[in-house]
Amino acid sequence: MRPIADAPLRNASVPTDLIGRRLQRRPLIGPRLLPRVAALVGTWTIGDRVAAVALVALAMAIDLFRVADMSVWGDEAFSIGLASLSWPELWHYAWTTEVNMVLYHALLKGWLDLSAVFGIPPVELVVRLPSVAFGGLAVLVVFWTGRRFWGATVGVVAAALLLLNHVMLLMSRYTRSYTLEVFLVCLGSCVLLVALTALRHRARWWAVYALIMTAALYAHLFSGLVVAAHVVAFIALLWLPTQWRDAARRSLRAMAICLVAISAAALPLLVFAATHGSPNLHVPPSSPYEVARALWNIAGRSVWYGLLLAGATAAGIVFTLRAWRTRRRSRVFPLGPAVVLCSWLAVPFVLAYVASQPRLNLHLFAWGYLVVVVPALCLLAGVGAAALPRHLARFALATCLVIAAALAIPEDSFTAGQDFRTAGVWIVENYQARDGLVCSTWSCALSLSYYERLGRIPTALLDASPVQWSWTRGGASPLDVADIQRYAQVHPRIFFVESVLDGDLAEVKVRAATAREWLDDHYALLGDIPLASLAGTVRVRLYAVDR
Q1: How far apart are alpha carbons 59 and 133 in whole angstroms?
Q2: What percent of the chain has pLDDT over 90?
């Protein structure tokens, strides 16, 4: 199947239907949905199917590497704890304290409840499997998109770059909603192009688009910036003098209805965000340094790979523009999909930067959140690799891109954000009856509570601990020296776990430092173990309480 052309059909004013003539004649949604999807996949060659299966299998294999041995840390422990509540408790906490990622937390709860039915405990591998699965699905959608619009080379290269991307690797291995969000925005972007170009059943494709992007918003609020990118791309297609303009004009009413429907469906999220403010106060204001940090991480912290990736992306854009200006028609470099990719890449980046300026600072510009633009970057780089005029040059650039991406993966992509697992092992090895434990942060309290539920830490250690997480009270109680002093009166020894992150609030850092200094001044230090991690060091100190 050949990529879509910008040239008009002989008897139609819109581009070729993306799903083939068989699917144009039959309903997409209804009792025959699965056969229709099967028919769509059936248009692939055997090579396409092998490539798709191989890419998804490779993505999941890499994401599963050492994932069972990685410690759960604060953000993950929050999601696991929330998903471990009853359904009424989950909904109450979500809609009173933290609604972001509510779709993911509901899906995670369903998964944990299902695994519990079969007696499978929520160990590290189990709680991370949904993220791994959604990461594999995102790779599949990127391959499908690249193959459908530009050819198999773009599909393979783009999917390979995505599964090897440093930020994507991190998010695929965390119990968080980011890979679900990436999967949904990839699928939504592809369905947008399908809806624009479908000759029949267009209303149903637009309905699917609205449902997917609404789900993306409930997976993560940052997806709203991708919806804005789609709007910008649609306006650009209305303005640019190509055959895509005819398709966009035909779809103007449908797009407007979709935006109204998405806004109405997401109204509870918007009301919550407006009344509760940003939950991401740890995200600093945007600055040139934060831009460089985001690009540095997206490029796998490799200057050479970053330059190669940027060059391939620029080549994809330049060749697309040249094809449009010289011939106004191209089956190799279709303008419409390229416009969507450019908008998808640039708009969320720019809007997040502007919205996080010091005077406004909605705390949106974080390199982890920007994982949603990585698929667009990978697809544009794949277009650049396929754009070179000679076959040998195309093969060489595609190979260099994939090899450079693999070599650029930082070693700490396969390490935990914070190593509470090893901290728990050390605590158990040194534990004695009547010992107590004090956490310096909420991330410590949630993570050690997770390991306590798995039976890896004695329950007595966490009973009446000065810093505990309470779902009913909406968070962690603050650390106070007076509370530690009262706690020490009933415990002959105390484990103090210091796990402050750079992004923690200043008050949290001050309270943790004050508690450590007070313990050092009043009690004898019996043991000390620092555990370096990706996000920050976890340090466990064992004190003997003088009586």
Answers
A1: 9
A2: 64
**Residue 470, strand partner residues:** 475
**Can you say whether residue 320 is alpha, beta or left, with left for phi > 0 and alpha for psi between -120 and 50 degrees?**
alpha
Q: What is the DSSP string of 67-87?
A: GGGSPP-HHHHHHHHHHTS-H
Structure-block tokens of residue 123? 């160990």
Q: What is the pLDDT of residue 474?
A: 73
Amino acid at 255: M
Residue with tokens 């198999």: 152
Q: pLDDT, tens digit, for every residue of 372-424?
A: 999 999 999 999 999 888 888 889 999 999 999 999 999 888 888 899 999 99
Q: Are 236 and 343 in contact (CB under 8 A)?
A: yes
Distance of CA 96 to the CA centre of its chain: 24
Tell me which residue of 233, 396, 374, 271 sits closest to 313, measured CA to CA. Answer: 374
Looking up tokens 């592809």 gives 190
Q: In this structure, what token pair is assigned to residue 487?
A: 């706690």
Q: Answer for the pair 153, 398: CB distance below 8 angstroms, yes or no.
A: yes
Give the DSSP H/E element, type plus range, for residue 268: helix 267-276
Cα 372 to Cα 208, 223, 366, 407: the distances in Å are 20, 8, 11, 22
Going from the C-alpha of 423 to that of each of 416, 417, 484, 512, 532, the distances in angstroms are: 12, 13, 20, 17, 11
Residue 258 pLDDT class (50, 70, 90 cuts) = very high
User: Phi and psi for 498 in degrees, rounded to 5?
Assistant: -100, 120
Q: 3-class secondary structure for 417-479?
A: CCCHHHHHHHHHHCCCCCCEEEECCHHHHHHHHHHHHCCCCCHHHHCCCCCCEECCCCEECCC
Percentage of the chain modeled with pLDDT above 70: 91
* 124, 450 Cβ separation under 8 angstroms: no
Average pLDDT in the 15-23 region?
37
pLDDT digits (tens, 9 = 90+) for 291-344: 999 999 999 999 999 999 999 999 999 988 887 777 655 556 788 899 999 999
**Angle of helix 74-83 versus helix 102-117 axis, rounded to 10:** 70
Given a contact cutoff of 8 angstroms between Cβ atoms, the answer to whether 515 and 484 are in contact is yes
Q: What is the mean pLDDT of residues 428-445?
A: 92
pLDDT at 505: 79
Q: Which helix or strand (DSSP H or E) is residue 5 part of? A: none
**Residues 243-266, mean pLDDT to the nearest whole number:** 93
* The one-letter amino acid at 263: S
Enter the pTM of the model: 0.90
Is residue 225 within 8 Å of 263, Cβ to Cβ?
A: no
Instruction: Tell whether the torsion through CA atoms of 194, 197, 200 and 202 is positive or negative.
Output: positive
**Rounded distance, CA 47 to CA 66, Å?**
30
pLDDT score at 327: 60
C-alpha 104, offset from chain centre: 11
Q: Coil, strand or helix: which one is 365?
A: coil
CB-based contact 485:476 (threshold 8 Å): no
* 536: nearest Cα among 439, 420, 409, 437: 420
Q: Angle, to 10 degrees, between the axis of helix 74-83 and the axis of helix 442-453?
A: 50
